[in-house]
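During the second year of the project, the team shifted from modelling isolated chains to modelling whole assemblies. The rationale, set out in the original proposal, was that interfaces cannot be judged from single-chain predictions alone. As a representative example for this report, we include one of the complexes processed in the last quarter. Its constituent sequences, exactly as entered into the pipeline, are reproduced here:
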Amino acid sequence: QVQLVQSGAEVKKPGASVKVSCKASSYTFTSYGISWVRQAPGQGLEWVGWINPYNGNTNYAQKFQGRVTMTTDTSTSTAYMELRSLRSDDTAVYFCARESQQLAFTIDYWGQGTLVIVSS
Amino acid sequence: DIQMTQSPSSLSASVGDRITITCRASQTISTYLHWYQQKPGKAPNLLIYAASSLQSGVPSRFSGSGSGTHFTLTISSLQPEDFATYYCQQSYNTPRTFGQGTKVEIK
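Output from the structure prediction step:
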């Protein structure tokens, strides 16, 4: 069955960077996009951006432009999201998710989430 | 950016009730509209994609309708496991955007 397994929780200081990994299994990694979505404590879902593992093309939400980089390693079917210059309001659970072009670009599978805490 | 507005923000209902959640887009999105269920501490789970297609494994009491700018999610007979938060999301263009969520609570 399709699985997206993310790296563990992180605690970072303001101004630092964090890199979250997302290992995919049981499907052809390069055939589906990977979106990253975050959820601050008690809040709704916020789209961070998207990467096409086939060609590395990315699309970032404007509010994260310049602070976020999404990459993939097709040899290990792993996606990465790096967020720099962390602020306290970046504290959130970060989800990776598979986006399916065949299903009208819906997100059909989600990782378990990675809690990132930004605190001095 | 396309704004997605859900209503209500929360509702209280009883087991067996029929409930409807509405999602409106700030511009037309055809049927690029999806519904997710999220329980506390868990990742969202896809219920409905492309406005009205039931995701495999999702009970048939869930249904979706709409196109353009107005969409609805209906649960025909609420079950205890359906108490959760529901989100709509558009994939018509980027940035992908979500509604603010509708929390369904037990009356």
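Chain A has a mean pLDDT of 97. The interface with chain B takes residues 35, 44-47, 50, 59, 61-62, 95, 97, 99, 103-108, 110-113 of chain A (CB under 8 Å).
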